[in-house]
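Onboarding guide, step 5: your first structure request.
Type a short instruction followed by the sequence, for example:

Predict the 3D structure of this protein.
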Amino acid sequence: MRSRGGRPTDSRLTIAGRELSGLRTEKTILLAIGIQLFIAAFSSFLVVGLVSMYDPGSLGGAEVEVAGAGDAVSDLERAASEVDGASVTRYEDAGAARLAFDRNAADAVVVANRNDDGGVSAVVTAPDATVETTVIVVQLRDLLRTYERQERADRAAFLSESPLPLPERTGTSPYFTFTYTVLIPVLVFLPVFISGSLVVDSISEEIDEGTFELLRVAPVTLGEIVDGKALAAVAIAPGQALLWLLLLRANGTPVANVPSILVLMTALTALVVALALAISALAPDRRAAQFLYSIGVLVLFGGATAMAGGPANAVARLAIDSADATTTALVVAYVGLAAVAYVGVRTIVAENGFET
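The system replies with structure tokens like these:
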């Protein structure tokens, strides 16, 4: 048996090389799916932990004792009555309040005084670099915002001109905001990153182990080999994303426009796979290729996130069913960009091959 280039070859070596390549690809895919299933098993704990970082005051149960002083402390006490978990204890002066803080009798100090021009100034003292600092600061922020809102409402009647109306308080749950703006985009894009990494690993390992040469003597072209590896990586991404979205829906989190989201993430997967192919052609060393791939993905998605029509924003708007014609146009644009990028990279690699 002879190859297309006229070199003698053994059909058994060719079959062995194809089997090794297939087993390696299957092993990598199963490992990627196993990692995601492991993450899913602890999804409830992850959501609670991530929400606590996204909005530390959302978990509730935090009680913050504030030592208050100054001639406007009574208004501060009134504001504290409307903030869950915050209470104000009045002290005679600022020195007594700070002494209570130093003795750990209070979590923070707020000294509120009225100025000569009729305004109110508040000096806040909070602990520095402790475990409770973040929660205390969040509670103080809510307390001062409530205080400001009350002052605006009380003084509106004395203004010569009617000010802008105060915005209504929203009861939006931080879990809702976090789920649709952070969690869903992360779950949708996680398979995208994994697919690109699979391609880099697959090609680099084929070159390192020498099985790539066996594949090249098989009765297939280099372009067909590239298409096979890319198709395997792209095909598994929508399935993984769909499973994530179905799990969210089963847990009571509805996600709208699932087909459009899957089309968008498939286009992004093709774009990332094209990037992985280009990097594998330029840097056949496995460690160097993975490093360059990681940097490239960070630059690509970091730059896209800074745009108003970035992928994360598009996924969030589709998920909450607030997409407009611009969002639809962006999805179409991503599909076109991914097609052009993959065809271009595939053509270059098929003509020039990989460095071995």
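Each response can be followed by summary notes, for example: Residues 1-23 have pLDDT under 50 and may be disordered.
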